[in-house]
Structure formats: C-alpha cells, structure tokens
Queue: 2 jobs
Job 1
Amino acid sequence: MAPESWLKISLPAFPVAFTIFGVWLYWRENPLPLLAPSVAFWGVVVLFYLFSHLDLPDGRSYSLFLIIAATSLWMVSAITSHNLGRFVISTRYSGFWSVFGSADFWYAYICAAVACGTGLRHFLRYEPEIVEQIRKDRESIE
Amino acid sequence: MYDVFILGLMTVGISSVVVFSYKIFHSRVYPVGIVRRMPVAQECVDERSAELPASPRRFQQELMSLLEKEWSIGEIADLHLSETDIEGHLQRVKVFAKNYSKQRRPRPQSGREQYRLALRLGETASLEREDSALEVEVKLHSKQFEDFEKRIRRLEIESVQKVQEAAEEKPQPQPPVVH
C-alpha cells in the first residue's frame, strides 16, 4: 500500500490506540469494555471513507445500506460494552477469563469484529483503485 | 427482552453486512478520484469562450468579479457598458447553456432509442450551430433518411409505371357472346 493509504487506515484507528496505550498500558485499567466499540468504529469510519471515494452506477445504494448495517453493529457493540463495563466493576468479575462467561462480551466483540473486518476487507479491495485514480487525476492536472 | 433486542439487531446487522458486501463485490464500482475545483462544464465554457473571436474575456472576468462582490444588476447597469461587451457576454452565456444542455442530455442505450433521439434532434438541428460531432452525426442521419425517402418514392413511381405498361400490353379479353 502507498504511504498515504497507511495514513488513511491509521487515523481512524486512533481510538483503538488510545484504549490500548492510554487506558491499558498507561492507566493500567481494564481495556475490554472500551476496546470493542473503538474497533467497531474503526470499521465504520473506513467504510465512510471508502464509499465517499467510490461510485456505484445505476443509483445503487448498496454502500449506504452497508454503512447503516455497520453502524448498527457499532451501536450494538457500544450498548453491550456498557453492560460489559458494569460486569467488570462488579464482584462477579474475577479475572480476565471470567469475561468469557458474559454474553455481553460475545455480543460486543462479535459485532466489533464483523464491522472492523468488513471495513478492512473493502479497504484492501478498493483502496488500490482509489489510489490509482487519484494518481491519474494528478497527472492530468499537472 | 434485552437479549432479544440485542440478538435481533446483531443478526440483522451481520446479515445485512454480508449481503451488501457480496452485492458490492459483484457490482461495477468506479473510483471517484480527485474532485476538481472547477466543474467540467465550466472548463468547457472557458475553452469555448477562448475560441470566440472579438469577445474580450476581460469583460467577462470583470463582470463575474462584480457579481461575486454582490453587486446588484442595477448597479452594474449604471456602469454604462458598451453594447459589444454585453453582446459578447450574452454569446458566451448562450454557448454555456448549449454545452450544459448537451452534457445533461440523457444518452440512450438501445439502437432504437438512439434512432429516436437522432430523429428528435434532427428537427432542431437547423436551429443549433453545427459545431459538435453529435450534430454532424444527426445531420448525416437526416440526410440518409431523405435519401431513403427519395429512393422509395422513385421505386413507387417505377412500379406504378410498370403496372400501367403491363396493363396496356396485355390484350383485352373478349367478352363472352351469349346467344
């Protein structure tokens, strides 16, 4: 990938990096409740970027529906992460492995993984085409 | 209730993501690239304006700068601009309107629609300037159409003449005599 492509994929990942490096490594707090919605949000932002640079002819709105679906996954991840946070600060939490017994953990991380995976999959598929088109446009302008 | 809502939303979200990802991967997708500051239509107008003779581009630029400064039309009229300047500007506006309408014109897909469009354009082709490939094509089609009509008329005349000649050469049958 081109250097600017790395920048495009890295900037939306800033909340993920903040959760890992700030909340977990610096403040030594449990990152699990914050990590899932950040990961899902990463995928949503990548999809927003992609489909503002792509055009589907004949008035097809697949990209719009895909973004709405990814946003709903982010919302589910955020709601269940909130409940996961309540679980983490309760007495039922007895260590890292105890979160696997919580349904909210699975809801949050499955939705986050699907939203993020979708964004990255589309990014790897269409980003080279966008970069190529931008290169052609720059050459024509110069 | 909470579990049903979350599970339902998650199921709908995941299934929608899978379905629309599949549809996008199997559709034609075009990258947009850089969005230019100047629209393509405006570029076209500027190129056409440069081709026009005896029409100072400076006047157009000055007029546009006045309009951008939110001058009213009355204030601009008070400047007492010459008629040639105004005519030149109007000519540019006409060229712009024509180019813009051409770019907005829907492009037919099938051959029948193309033929209909050519006929429809053929009626108005004499009103427009002959300066585009589309108009040249329309004129060519209308000329071919006239040639077809002439040929059909000539064939009709020839066939009628042949029928008449055949009728003259054929001997008249004798009416039966009844005794």
Job 2
Amino acid sequence: MMVSLILSLAVAASVAFAALAGLELTSPWTVVMVVAGSNAGLLLALRVRAVSPRTGKALPQRRMVSLVEQTLPHMRLGLNEDTASRTVQLLHDVMRLEAVAITDREQVLAFTGPGTDHHLAGDEVRSPVVRKAMKSNQILVTRDSRHLGCPPDMNGDCPLTGAVVAPLSCDGHPVGSLTVYESGEGAVDDSLIELTKGLGGMLSLQLELAQAHREAQIAETAKLDALRAQINPHFLFNTLNTISMRARTDPEEARRLLVRLSDFLRYAMKYSGHAAPFGEEYFFVRTYLFLEKARFGDRLKVRYDVDPQCLSFPVPVLTIQPLVENAVKHGIAQRPDGGLVELRARMEPIGGVLRIKVIDNGIGIESERLSSLMTISGGEISALSNIYERLTRLYGGRASFDISSVPGKGTNVSLGLPMGIKSP
Amino acid sequence: MSRRLLAPGQTIGSYSLRFEAPEETRVPDEPVVSRLDEAEFDSLEEVDAVVRTLRRTGIQYGLMVVAMLLAVPVLALEAPWWFARSVWGGLTLNFITVAAALNVAFLVIALVHNRVANRSEDEMLGRLDDDLEWDDV
Amino acid sequence: MSDPSSLLATLGLVAAMLGVSWAVRRSTFTTLDFYLARRQVGPFLNACAICGDYLSAASFLGVAGAVYAAGADGIWFATGFTAGFIVILFFLAAPFRRAGQFSIPDFLATRFDSTRVRLTAVCIVQLIVLLYLVPQLAGAGLIWEVFIGRGLGTLSPYTTGIVLSTAAIVLQAVVGGMKGTTWNQALQFGLKLFTVIVLGLVVIAAGFSYPSAVEDASRGPHTISASVARSRLVSPDGGPTALLERAQSVMSPQGYDTVLGQLESGSARVDLLLPASNRMHPERELRFVEPGFRFTFAEQIALIITLLLGTAGLPHITHRYFTSSSGRAARASTVWVLGLAAIFYFLAVLLGVAARSELAGYLPAGLTNADFIDGVVRVPEKALLFLSVEAGGEPLLTLVSAAAFAAVFSTVAGLLIAAATSWGRDVYEQFINPEASEARRVRFARIAVSLTAIVAASLSIGVSVMGEAGAPGVALMVTWAFAVAGSSFTPVFLLSVWWRRTTAAGVLAGMTIGAVLSVGAISLAVAAQQFGWAEWMQLGHFPSLVAAPLAAAGVVVLSLRGVAPDTAPSWRLRIHGTAPERRQALLIRLAAREGKIG
C-alpha cells in the first residue's frame, strides 16, 4: 500500500512539474518526465519498504529466500507438531520476531517466545481472534491482550500485548493459523501485518505444494501399484498357465479365457479420469474373478449381489478389484478347501451413499496386521492403505472404509462412497 | 497386404458372412459364426447375479403394483370421499382411478422397469462396449 | 338388422382374412414355420398381434356390457385384464423367449425333463382353451343374433352364428398357420381399435361428456333386470306387494304400465326392473358410479388377484412370446401391449358408460320387448351393439359387428393354434409317432384343431349365457379361464424361472393343486348360484387368491424334498443370459463394418 501511495504521489508530482514547466500534457517531454518521476518514486518506495521501522535494519532479500528454503523441507511434510515447532523456531530466529505460534484447526501446534510457560503446544485454541481468522479466512489483528489466548487464570500476567493472525489455507480451506505476537513496547503496526500476511501466504503455498506433491505421489503409486498388481507377473503367469493347460482339454474354454484376459488388461490400461461408473468396475471384477476361477476351480466360489441403481454411480477407478484380489489371495488361496468371495453393492436410501462390501470366508486377518495395513510405514504403501488414502483425498473424509475380520472365519471389507468426488 | 473388394457372401479367410439356414432343432436359435461363441458368452456367476438383481427388482415393483391395486377396494370400503363424492361431474375418485389412472400408472411403472431391466442386463453381462476391432473377436 | 349389406360386409371380412392367410403362406412349410412365424416379428407388430389375441369378445362386448350392467364394478374386468401383463413383463417375457420352446408343455417338460409334467400341462392347456373358447363362440352367437337376426335352416340365429364362425376360423387357422394368424391378428386389432375410436367419436359428437354421463347414470338408483314369479308381485288380496312397489319406484311410468299389463294378462313370470342391492355398503342405495353391484369387498380383491395372475398363464398369450426376436424385444412388446390395451379399454369403458346414459334416450320410453326391459338391455353384452345402431345407424352397426367378429375370430384362432401346437408337439410327436414327418404332424395338428373347435362350439351352444339375470356373462366365463390359468400355471412359471431348486415333482404338485382347487371352486360357485346356496360361495368364481398360493406352496414343499435337476445351471444360462442376443448384435455390427472395408 505504501508503494502505491508513493508511486501515485510521484506520478502526480511529475505531471504537476511538467505543467508548471509549461509543457503540453501530451508532449513527449511530459511522458519522459512522468516516467522518470515514477521510477524515482518506485525506488523510493521500495527503499522505504526494505527499511523496516521495526528493527531499524534493512532485511536483505537473501534472508527471505533463505527463509523459504529453510521452512520448505518441514512444511512439505504437512502440518503437525514437529514441523510446526521447527517452523516457528525458524521464523523466530530468521525474522527476529518476538513470539510466533502455529496452530491447526483445533489446537496449538507450536509456540516460541515470551509466554511459552502458558502458551503450550497441545492446548486447544483459546483465542477468539485466531478462531475467527481461521473461520473467515482473513488476516486479523488484535491489540487487546485479553484476546491472545492466555489461559483464564493468567489475569494479565502475560508479557504479550498484541498479535497478528494469518490463516494458513490449502485449496481455499483454512487448515491452521500463523500468529505473530508483539510484547512489551513493540507496536502492532502495518509492517508487522504485512510481514505476517507474507509469511502466512508463504506457508500456505508450501502446504499446498506439499499436498499436490503427495497427491501426485499417491496417484503415481496407485498407478504403479495397479499396474504392478494387474500386470503382476505372478498373476499373468498363473493365468497363462491355466489357459495353456486348459487348451489341451477344453480349447473353447481356453479361448474364452484369453478373450477375458485381454478385456482385463485393456481395462487396467485404460485410465480416463479418476472415476468410473460402478458398472465398469463391476465388469473388471467379474472379469478378474472369471480368470481366477479358472485357476482355482471349485475352490473358489463367487457370488455377486448388485442393486441396479448402483450401476451408474461414479466410483474411483481400480478401487474395488484390489479389494477382491486381496480377498482371493490372502483369504481363499491360503485355504485348502477354498471358500466363497462375495461382492455386494447397495444404495443406501438416505444420503445417497453407495455401500460396497467384499466378503470372504477365508483365513481372515489378525488384528495387529489389520492396524498395520491401514497406516503408511516408511515409504511402503500397501494396496489397502493406498485405497484408503485415495478415498480420503477424493472424498475429503466423507467416504468410509471399514475392515473387520475374524481369523479363521473370514473378512469383511466395507466401503461407503458418497456422491461428489472432488476433482483433484 | 493386398486388399480385395468383397462381394456379399464372399468369404474372407475363415469367416463366412452368409447366414446358414437353420436346422430343425429343439432349440431353434439363430446361426452364429463359431468364433463369436468365445467372444460373447455368459458365466454362471454373472447370470446368477443378474437373476438375483432382476428378481429383487421385479418383486419390489410387483409389490408396488399389487399395493396400488388392492388399495382401491380398501378405500372403496372405508372412505366415502373416495367412492361417493363427485369430483368432476358425476365422476368419483374411485371411478377415475379404476377407469383410467391405474392404467396410466401401470404404463409408467412398466416403462421404468423395462429400462431398469435392460440396463441391468447390459451392464452386468457381456463386455464393455469399447470399439472392438475385428481382431479382437 | 338383417340387411343384406351387413351380411355382405361380414362375408367380405372373412374372405379378407382367408386371403391374407393365403398370400403369406410359404410353399415350403415346416413345423417351425407353422408354429412360430419364422421369428421375424418385430416388437410393435407382435404387440398388436398380442392385443389382437387378447382383446377378445370378452374385452370388446363383455367389458362394455359389464360396465353397462354393473357400473363401477364392471370396470375391474378391464383394469384386471391389463394388469396381468405387468406380471408377464416383470417375470416371464424375456425368459420365455430365451428358453426357445414352442409351447407351455414343451417349456415345462424340457426344463424338468419329465413326461408326466408334459402330460399334465397339456391337459390343463386344453382345459383353459376350452374355458376360453366357449364364451368367445357364445359372443359370436350373440352378435349374429343382433346383427343378422336370422338362422340357417332350423337353427336358431345364436347357434348359426356359432357354427359359421367356427367353420371360418378353423379354415383360416389350418390354411395359414401361425404367420397368417399373426398378421391377421395385428390387422384385426387395428380394426377393433379403429372401431372403438369411431364409436367413441360418434358418441361424443352426439353430445356425450364423460363426467355428465356418469352423473346422469347415477342420478337414480341403479337397476337390475329380473324375471319374477307372479306370486311375489301380487299379494293374496290382489294388491301390489312391496316388491312390486319397489319396481315401480325405479321404472318409468310406461315401463310400469307394461308390467301391469303383463300381470293383468295372466303371465306366470313378469320381467321388470328392481333397484339393485349394494353388496359393498348395504346401508347405501346403489348408484351407477359406486362399487357394490356385483362384488363384495372380498370378491373385489379376489377378482383383482385372479385377473392379475391369470394373464401369464394363458396359452395363447405365452405362445406369442416364443415368437419375439429376442428377450428384450419380448419385453418391449409387453410394454407396447400395456399402452395399446390401456387405450382400448379406456374407450371400451367409456362406451359402456355411454350406453347406460345415452341408449335410453334413443329408445321409445319404457320400451319392453325381447331385447329390452323398460329401456334396459336384457343381455348386457348386446349393449354396445344397440348403442352403435341407435347412435350411428346400420353402417356403424356393421362396423361394430365386424369388429366384434374380428375379436372373436382372432382370439379363437390364437387359442386354437395354441391348442394345436400342443397336440402336434406335445402329444403326437412325443407319444404317438416321434419319427413322423413334417406333413403328418401338421395334418394331425389340423385335425386336432378342428376337433377342439367342434367341442367348444357344442359347449357354447349348450351353455345359456344370455337372458336371465345371474347367468354368467361373457366376461365372467373368461374370468374362469383366467382363474385356472392363474392358479395352475402362473405360480409354476414364476418358480420355474426364478427359483433354482424347483423340481419336476414340485411342478406336478403345483399344477395339480392349482387346477383342482380352481375348477372345484368355480363349480361350487356355479352350483351355489343355481341352487341358491350360501352367499360366500360366490367367491369361488375367483379362486386364485387361495388356489395360487397353495399351488406355489405345493411347488416349494415338494421341490425342497427333492433334488434340483442337473440341467438347472445350463437352464439358468439359457433363460437369463443374453449371450445369443449379444452375438447377434455383434455379428450385425461386424458385418456392417465388413461392408465398409474393402
């Protein structure tokens, strides 16, 4: 704002000067004068900007760049206590801020500066200003020490006197906040507000970049995973083996299997968008199970139970077949006398949610493995957790994913998919 | 590869485009070029799935129809405003319903069911309808 | 009404039918061709043919007559007849076509691999055909009575009508085979539809408005015609009894005068009109627009269920499904039928109402003669005919009579072909001479058809369908056929197609239970009417409500005790799978593409 003010003053001044000098407003000399004047004004404004009244020292651009470089590795991992505490430390050190805090939607993640004794990480967000800033996605300022989020029993013993709160947002939704405090005689002035705004913007941008990166990574992993699974050499090998054995005894059946195999591979390769109608995913599952049934024979029994309204409902691609494959590989294949795999699809009348269940009566999953299947450990992502991640990304948490299993009895995987996949 | 102009009935390779006359068989079905047998077929599980689906749908819609049909005499027994009050000239609601409205309702239900049944069969049986090349058959 | 021009018109119609049959006859004539019209029938055409089959004299004259006589109650026949197709659409249309058989007994016998099933089914088919034929031919007799009014030689007009109609029909069915009948039926349906539309337009042009017509008809109490013994009308002291006074309250002065005249001239029985009792709400006076003339609440429910289930079991209807070009086409046909039938019945009901409200206006006040009592038609089935002659003169009567004959011919033809197929395939080919050549089979079928027709004709001559109040009308007799079909075949069909564990033993039990119970109940009801037994026995006219579930139970219980046949899975694939249809479509697509390449 300062910049535009100074700039406009400079332009006005140069026009006035030209007029005084008797020049026509349209003459080239006026233009030259105005240009020169605005350049001067610009330089002046930038200089004013760079000289922060706060510290009295000029903040070299180098420092800003270094800040970005230093915070990115942390923010890239997402917003949690660990990353937040490192970031507030950096901000405090590099930008010479009195006190800094980062919160997520619910609680304070990190705080550094005077007042750390009662502004603790893990506290819930008490400050009404912070809450409002996150809710309305706006920068807010307070000079009232009562609104700083001190615990109620502090009674004004906090050294902090004011704060600027900038929301941190991702995809337009607030996910947290950055608060820069003032203490003692320091004033909450425009430069502090501008600084906080800039820092908030920077952190938000980094969070968004991190999210985009993660999503791309997930999608890539999904693709690779799917490709790996589908063109899984083992699967192909087994199926081709089955076909070649069948070719001797029942050539017609062998040819049919080949046709289905080609359907299967073609679908696996076809990647149009993120969602497909459930009918197509069902096609993929039944093609897959037809091939597996040829291999396992009577050991694998298959049952489908589909409501017709489900057929056009959009579901994320390649989410259902992996579940079925899991059921076959880990449930039924391990069982000598085989079992039944069932796919059920129903529309829930209230809420328009598609409920998909993959049920098998195989050997089941132990509970410890169950919980580990759902989390990401290190860099490895299992098929189930990949699906879970994708569902979270695509539905923003509105989808449900439940696994229940009784070792020895069977496993039951249930998906609840609502309408409206977020286009990522 | 040289291309020849094809005349109707001419064979290309091992395929014949001429329809063969049907024999007098127990199940008089249309003749089929044998390769199509492998391209389009049903598996028992898929068919059972469609049976399950259509049976359930038929029963749901059927119960709806029966309920509609039986509601009329029930109303005719219990509700004077249904069978004794004129709503249009001399016509009562009962009369209008039995003479016209029920048939219209049945037609609508029939159209909807027909669409659902066709849809279910199309999507739950057979292959995806991407443009199949001749070689794919 | 014995105008030579009308006679010529009728003869012209018959000649046209025969001509079309001849024209579409093929020189090489296999059984397949004969029975199934070479599967070249498209859905709409098939639907027209089904309607032609289905909209019999009962629909045409019977429904209008039922509405004329019974008011709101009579409409249920129309609605019920249509509703039955819903059952077919939902559960039977596509599976029947995909099964690929020729007839009901064939279907059941192949599904369950059992000759006993075949035999039982054949018997029931013939029974249904007879029950359905008799009212049709009776209808033909009635039309002849009104339209021509003269008999051949010593035969009454009624009998003459029956005999001549039967002869024409047999000739046509035998010469043309199924395909002739398909086209004929579609045309005849067109004629019927055209007729009701024309009649409707004439009536509307004469000032008919549906709401006000119903209002007019409902103004006074609804009447029923009766023939009452003198003793009940004249009290010992010579004065009128309460009954006579009630008659006076509903009859016109001129009509009542006629009654008095009859009493004075000493007749033992007098025809008069009485206020009808309200069987649904006894405390209310019955009006035309209100239900309760014919049916109590229980009877209404029973009637609805009987009609709903009956359509699916009628042999001449199911036969048409075997001719569709694919399962989907069969379903599409059924939807068309629902639409066409709805239009037709809407008009038929409208005409019944019109007859009630308008007809009296055309006649001299209080007309009482062989056909009328105080302006009310004695035989309700004739109401439509009288309306047409009064509203539109001889030409309209000719048209309507031609259409009515068309209704009879087409239905009878369909029935006879269904019967013939059964005789030829299920009896002759299976039991008498499996090695027989085509020609011999066809000849046997022709003979069988003729015999069936003659039996039906004799029965219909014997049955008195007209005149006295309480005699079964055409619509009711057709309902009997529906009852047997709906109780013995429909549950069995539904379970055979949709339940995998059905066995031959179960099906046998089901058919037998259904047939025995329904026939028994109907006989009970008829006897009860004749001998004046308890009122509730009238429910026996509509036995499906009880007989069908019991038949279904029979199927289930006996099937569970047995083992499902080995062929069950391959049957499921055949009946419910769409692979042949998809192959057909693929072939067409590829052939088209081939045509483009090169």
